[in-house]
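Justification of resources, computational component.

The compute hours requested in this renewal are based largely on the per-chain cost of generating structure records like the one below. Each record pairs the submitted sequence with a full structure-token output. That output is archived, and it is also reused by downstream analysis tasks.
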Amino acid sequence: MTGARQAIEALARADTGRLLGSLLNHIRDFQMAEDCLQEALESALVHWQRSGLPASPAGWVLQTARRKAIDRLRRARNFERKAAEYAVLLDLDRESVECDEPAAIPDERLRLIFTCCHPALDAKTSVALTLRTLCGLTTREIARAFLDSEDAMAQRLVRARHKITRAGIPFEIPGPDLWSERLNAVLTVIYLVFNEGYSATAGPTHLRTDLCEEALRLGSLMKVLRPAEAEIEGLLALMLLIHARASARSDPYGAMVPLDRQDRTLWDRAMIARGLAELDRALSRHSPGPFQLQAAIGAVHAEAPDHAATGWRDIALLYDGLHAMTGNPVHLLNRAVAVSFAEGPEAALSILDRLEADLGQYQPFHAARADLLRRMRRFDSARAAYRRAISLSGNGSERDFLSGRLEAIAEDD
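The structure output for this chain reads:
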């Protein structure tokens, strides 16, 4: 049973977006597609623990979800309006009677993102719904990322699904005339997918390479669909420059390695070169935006020979510009960290103290504050800040790292 459960959890993490997108392409009912996929995963647990894993787990789940949709459509009161979807699913079922995986499960993930980012949904709901449907994050994980209660987030997601169905929001990539109203939301969602991979909200490890690579794939697709768009190039540059450091962010045992201790010879220089080239193209269009500024920060890091020689003052100025564009207090938090290396931890702490009202429930705020206090040798306050950061972290690797820093204070004290 343990093996079956682990296989299902892994499949849900890796393939939820692909499977849900394929179902939505035919069912056109967001809530029904999600319900059928969930029921198929539950059926998998029963069948796989009894009979073992099928040759193609994803194909098995997709076919089972389709059959559950057929049953639901057959029983639906509005069957006549659903007859077209019913006929398509029946045809698909006949094509794979033995539940073998189709030659290729259609990849509809970009359509799924555009559906989740329809202007009828607010930005927060779009991001939360995409993280749930495309990335397979649990409602609890998403609630923690947004500093919401699990119940409030669950209600938000239910309302969003119903709204998509009731409003008849099309499952499609819109034409060029409608891109402007969704572009920023779509890029933000892709970046948050990447960010969840770069710094996982929950789980045993802090890095989920599958999500980072999925976000890079989606960013590249966006560039194909909309070439010569500065912010798409900026986002792609940002993700490449950050992901280039992936191999140096963990030691051989999977423990976190902070930026100042990373072996920069492990950074992927070819990926950095690609990122810098994308950033140069974006900046040459003279249409500045937040992703380009963040990519410029990544470029400063990528081009520095070591941590001490990094252009921290330049990074602080770039974060100032980002905050002016977005009003996001997290950019001021990151600016404070840069100031700490440019001017010292005392100057940074005064900036950080002014952010507590906005970021008091945000784990990185307390982790940054703990580090500043440790560097200032204010060890009692540092311990309290580390404990608070640990209590707010849902990631095992991150908690281990912070706990190690907390324990090390005893040696410095």
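The chain is about 70% helix and 0% strand. Residues 2-27 form the longest helix (26 residues).
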